[in-house]
Amino acid sequence: MSQQETHGFQTEVKQLLNLMIHSLYSNKEIFLRELVSNAADAADKLRYEALTNDALYEGDGELRVRISTDKEKGTVTIEDNGIGMTRDGVIEHLGTIAKSGTADFFKNLSGDESKDSQLIGQFGVGFYSSFIVADKVTVRTRAAGHAKDEGVQWESAGEGDFTVDTIVKETRGTQIVLHLREEEKEFADDYRLRSIITKYSDHISVPVEMWEEGTPAIEATEEQEAVAATEGQWQSMNKATALWTRNKSDVSKEEYEEFYKHISHDFTDPLLWSHNRVEGKQEYTSLLYIPSKAPWDMWNRDRKHGLKLFVQRVFVMDDAEQFMPSYLRFVQGLIDSNDLPLNVSREILQDNKVTTALRTAVTKRVLGMLEKLAKNDAEKYQTFWAEFGQVLKEGPAEDMVNKERIAGLLRFASTHTEDAAPTVSLADYVSRMQEGQSKIYYIVADSHEAAANSPHLELLRKKGIEVVLMSERIDEWLINHLTEFDGKQLHSVTRGDLELGDLEDAGEKEAQEKLETESEGLVKRIKDSLGEKVSAVKVTTRLTDTPACVVAGEGEMSTQMIKLMEAAGQAVPESKPTFEINPEHPLVARLNDEQDEALFTQWSDLLLQQAQLSEKGSLADPSAFIKLMNEMLLAKLK
């Protein structure tokens, strides 16, 4: 019994369809790559499901994709005998974009068609690419193992809605009929389609077939022998061998790039890749890609990530995240193992020595790829860092074993370059360390400008000591897990003691001790006037041009960590700063001479709030600060 229903597309789908129809004018032929890719995936999934239920083959185990055209009707048909879809599956997969991050994607659209078409490439379009060339698409499908009368027909003109109907379909799998627009009839040409398949789908491991017309019989003549008639037949247009099973020397750069687009549904070429076959105790093949662009949903916690898993060339699962740590979630590719059981399940993958060994090996392979890139092509590595650097910063917390290697891949800004671009590695920093310097000095602030202009850097600048400038939200969290590099401790310049060690000469130390002794009375007066607002008042060793600063005491949370905790909704224990003063600054010298205790308290409070504003970028009560500032200005003007 027919059950036709009409459904409306999600708003995002309508926007995406409209955008694709009008934007992808320069890359129309990719519709065939996307649809053939999906059809091949459907064949892979059936092959895996049939391992435990042979009846799903329904007597036909020869999996393939077939493409045909009808010039008169102006249609192109892509048909597979793969896993197929149920009615609910059709509504879910063809009526919605089953990919997170859609809101971010549409937020980034500019209205410039050429730019927006590049954004689509990072987003992935799959089935919806049909509407680049078609003004109507008809899908007929039946899930393997379901009755013939449980077939489903889906149809849409790519505008506001689509219809779903129950039909009888004799064979399992999916048939997609594209009703081409008048201006896209070139794609109904047999030769045109063959050239596209050869270009985009040669690497696909199931046969992609097109119909080869037969030839009539030719009778014998004096000049020519008789030729028997040949019947028409389906002929494979691709090699139909899994690309990763071939020798590296036999695979061209173009084939590697097309295979990447097949598995990632990305339009852009990958940045680099590594193809390796490992034999011995473990036998497996890995083909790993580093993309050139980050997907829009990189930071979405629910985003699917991981490699495709094959066992003895049989597809087992997508998104096998067990083989790739989360901080490398941008890596695309596959693993084909000979050591895992074919009926592998997620439970087995959770606790399996082979899985752990594969994960370790693949992680090292990716880190090696990145180290090689950083060493041989710094400019290309900066391209990678701009896209994925913040994700890589999760590594030291997640992967203790490879912490030092990951640290070597990190890039920061520093006072050496005075440039906001993060181009400095920790190895670069160590190579420039001064004689007697035992620590790597760094500062974490809300922005590069705040870090570069922080008063905490004054003494270090004067001494020519380089400071790493960090200004990303993740940096404070990173530093809590990355405490040293190459045997050198990382030390925050906003912490209580700068710990300059051998960088501080005897004369400076003596002068500092003398200043502290001479300022004991002033320090006590300020502490008494500020009371509970500060934990301690000290004479600073780090300021030259600024009257005062606040620092975090030993064992206390830094300002940036407090902000990070608060942003995550965590309760933060109340902490009072250590207030450091510079007695040689004219304002502090003037304060020391102030006899009026009320004025002395106001000046002390003003200097404290200035220091807190400089450190935090904000104050708990900015209006009180402005009121105090105005009062002091008026008093000065009288």
What can you tell me about this protein's structure?
The protein is an alpha+beta fold and 638 residues long. The chain folds into four domains: 14-214, Histidine kinase-like ATPase, C-terminal domain (Heat Shock Protein 90), CATH 3.30.565.10; 250-398, Ribosomal Protein S5, domain 2, CATH 3.30.230; 410-504, Rossmann fold, CATH 3.40.50.11260; 507-555 and 573-637, Heat shock protein 90, C-terminal domain (Four Helix Bundle (Hemerythrin (Met), subunit A)). The chain is built from 22 helices and 22 strands. The strands form four sheets. Strands 1-6-5-4-7-3-2-8-9 form a nine-stranded mixed sheet. Strands 10-11-14-12-13 form a five-stranded mixed sheet, sandwiched between helices. Helix 9 packs across helix 10 (378-392) and helix 9 (353-376) runs parallel beside helix 12 (403-409). It is elongated, with a radius of gyration of 33 Å. ATP binds at residues 34, 38, 80, 85, 99-101, 122-127, 174, 346. Belongs to the heat shock protein 90 family. GO terms for molecular function: ATP binding; ATP hydrolysis activity; ATP-dependent protein folding chaperone; unfolded protein binding.
